[in-house]
Design brief:
Shape: globular
Oligomer: single chain
Number of domains: 1
Strand order of the largest sheet: 1-2
Order of helices and strands: EHHEH
Structural class: mainly alpha
Distance between the termini: 6 Å
Number of helices: 3
Largest sheet: 2 strands, antiparallel
Length: about 60
């Protein structure tokens, strides 16, 4: 797994075996959770660490 700070919809789609559109929905939901907790986010990307915490079994 690449260790850049943020993960993209394309990477999420590949890891989870879902469409890119669904991956964007996942990113949106994760970013909403982060925003609710006071974190800054980037539209269309999500923190790789947060994604790995929320999706069991994804960590390489």
């Amino acid at each position: 797994m690449d260790k850049r700070m943020f993960i993209t919809a394309q990477e999420i789609a590949e890891y989870l075996g879902v469409s890119k559109a669904h991956a964007y929905k996942i990113i949106k939901k994760l970013n909403e959770q982060l925003n609710k907790n006071g974190f800054m986010t980037i539209t269309g990307k999500v923190s790789r660490r947060y994604f790995e915490e929320k999706f069991y079994g994804v960590v390489a």
